[in-house]
Design a protein that fits this description.
By secondary structure, the protein is mainly beta. Helix content is about 0%, strand content about 45%. It is built from no helices and 13 strands. The protein has strands at about 5, 10, 20-25, 35-40, 45-50, 60, 70-75, 80-85, 90-100, 105, 110, 120, 125-130. Strand 10 and strand 11 form a beta hairpin. The protein is globular. The N and C termini lie far apart (about 35 Å).
């Protein structure tokens, strides 16, 4: 079983909303951080949102702050990314990832240290277009 499996990507109009889901396998449940990254065509991958284990804190990049919300359902377990007020520049392949070994994957202010993220999903495509 893949450690992380994303779903929920779709084509949506500007201003619309979408919720992404990330199913988390038992092999990576003991993480320090779980987060969402994205990669737009021709651009480097960037962090969007991260959530500390036990929901202690969540951080967001400046580009999504106030519009995106990361949350989890411990009963499943699944991590979500609720995306509101979507813009064409949000178009990207969205990845779920975990930092299970270092604890240094994410910092206040939405700083993402990608080298510390250990496991990655295959991604789900989000396209924002009229």
């Amino acid at each position: 079983q893949a450690p992380l499996v994303e779903s929920g990507g779709d084509l949506v109009h500007p201003g619309g909303s979408l919720r992404l889901s990330c199913s988390v396998s038992e092999s990576v449940l003991d993480y320090y951080w779980i987060g969402w990254f994205r990669q737009a065509p021709g651009k480097e991958r960037e962090g969007a949102a991260c959530l500390m284990k036990d929901d202690l804190v969540a951080y967001y990049s400046d580009s999504v702050k106030g519009r995106f919300t990361i949350s989890r359902d411990v009963s499943k377990p699944v991590v979500y990314l609720q995306m509101n007020s979507l813009k064409p520049e949000d178009t990207a392949l969205y990845y779920c990832a975990t930092d299970t070994t270092s604890g240094y994957g994410c910092y206040e202010g939405g700083v993402f240290e990608e080298d510390y993220w250990d496991d990655w999903g295959q991604g789900t495509q989000v396209t924002v277009s009229s």
